[in-house]
């Protein structure tokens, strides 16, 4: 039998492990989180929030953490507490709940669910998920370019020897 996951504290960042990406929410108490979801997403359709990548709008929703996480694992991840001072929990919750029901701009690279919750907790909009992906793509691109240069040099060298 699995040990129960302890209830988060109001204002905590919740990282939900979706296939291929991480969804983020902010815990507001009594089992509820506030998070971004596509405007068409039905309540409790947590796993389908991958569809948010296909839209430029999102709705701020307050739903039960259990429903948002669905069968995906999650945990508290206040990963920037060492870099930024979190706002007081009451202020975080107040700011989050004031946004519930609003439709907001959504951009995968600059205004996603991770940016949203970091802004609420720290007053700083940031997404490590985007940064890490951009870096990985950049590194892969540099590797590909280097392989192309080496291939061209080898091909030229081979032609010169013939």
Protein model, in words:
The model is unreliable at 44-49 and 131-146 (pLDDT under 50). This protein is α+β, with helices and mostly antiparallel strands and 162 residues long. The protein has four helices and six strands. The N and C termini lie far apart (70 Å).
Sequence of strands across the biggest β-sheet = 5-1-2-3-4-6
First-last Cα distance:
70 Å
Number of strands: 6
> What proportion of the residues form beta strands (DSSP E)?
15-25%
Q: Could you describe the largest sheet, including whether it forms a barrel?
A: 6 strands, antiparallel
Helix content: 25-40%
N-to-C order of helices and strands: EEEEHEHEHH
Residue ranges: pLDDT <50 for 5 or more in a row?
44-49, 131-146
Number of H- or I-type helical stretches: 4
Specify Rg, calculated over alpha carbons: 21 Å
Shape descriptor: globular
Q: What average pLDDT do the residues reach?
A: 79
Given helix and strand content, the structural type is: alpha+beta
| Oligomeric status | single chain
